Amino acid sequence: MEIKVAKHAGFCFGVKKAIEIAEEVAQKNKEKTYVYGQLVHNEQVIKDLEGKGIVFVENINEIPENSVTVLRAHGEPGTTYSILGQKSIVRGKNLNDATCPLVTLVHNVAIKLKNSGYEVILFGKRNHPEAIGTSYHLKGKDTFIVEKPEQAGMAADYISKNNFEKVAIISQTTMSVYGYKMLIDNINSKLGNDKFEEIPLSLKDLTKKYGYVDTICNPTKQRQSDTDEIAKDSEIVIVIGGKNSSNSKELYAKCRELGVESYFIQSGQQLQKEWFKGKEKIGVTAGASTPDYLINEVVEKIREITS
Q: Which residues are known to be catalytic?
């Protein structure tokens, strides 16, 4: 039996940095340290951080005034900073921003496109914190969001009916690379003579009427590419990730698309012996919010139940 682990499985640098910030802040702070929302989308990581004196809240009103606070890796809308400011929680004093720089890059791209006269459409998960944060910089709740390639017809209708002078499409950092390409192709197939062309991430050329910017981050691309490679050479693939992890779900979807028997788990305890009966080639991959120790735990558990 052979177990192959994807090369780039597990934490990306943005997640590592967010956890380091939270741990360092909590260690220095004698009082409770608050985090608004899940710092990263992994239940086990959240549980570990709670054991270090960090309190996670889903309602911003639950954060007391003047409290030491950490903002999650996914990015926040400006309203979050305003509300915290009213509670005397500000940068340079007691607010520690763990937003991933690659998410901040998407915010900056959105703002520049908007300021350059583009109607900006977002390819992302409507209720995902990153998509909510990016939407704030565009049209807030009125930002047009496409969640999957199959909704290309809705996007094409939205563009046609409103007769926008210029339209640009950007993506949440953790979406499917293949899905994004399919979305653009599907929209182009429904439009007339004007087609969406790629606008470089540098945004040096903003003359195109219809353009899309590749804002899916490199860690996401690496994990999807590695998973593709692992899946094609395995009889079964185990995908490890948090229940709410967008990038982990995309890895699982990728395996299913390739027709490989796949299972999406949060820990080694969920593994079932019958999954591996008669299997000789086993692949393991993990989302960007999955710590190395969980990956190692799953690999060891597979060895244990198949021996």
A: 130
pTM: 0.92
Residue 65: count other Cβ atoms within 10 Å of its Cβ. 9
Rg (CA), the chain: 21
What range defines the domain where residue 282 resides? 2-10+219-306
- 224 and 200 assigned to the same domain: no
Q: Is 92 found in the same domain as 51? A: yes
Task: Please report the DSSP string for 255-297 in residue order.
Answer: HHHTT-EEEEESSGGG--GGGGTT--EEEEEE-TT--HHHHHH
What number of other Cβ atoms are within 10 A of residue 78's Cβ?
12
Q: Which of 216, 246, 277 is the last residue of a domain?
A: 216
pLDDT digits 0-9 by tens, 70-117: 999 999 999 999 999 999 999 999 999 999 999 999 999 999 999 999
**Residue in this structure with the two tokens 């979305």, named with its chain if needed:** 183
Cα separation, 74 vs 274, whole angstroms: 37
Number of neighbours of residue 263 by Cβ within 10 angstroms: 15
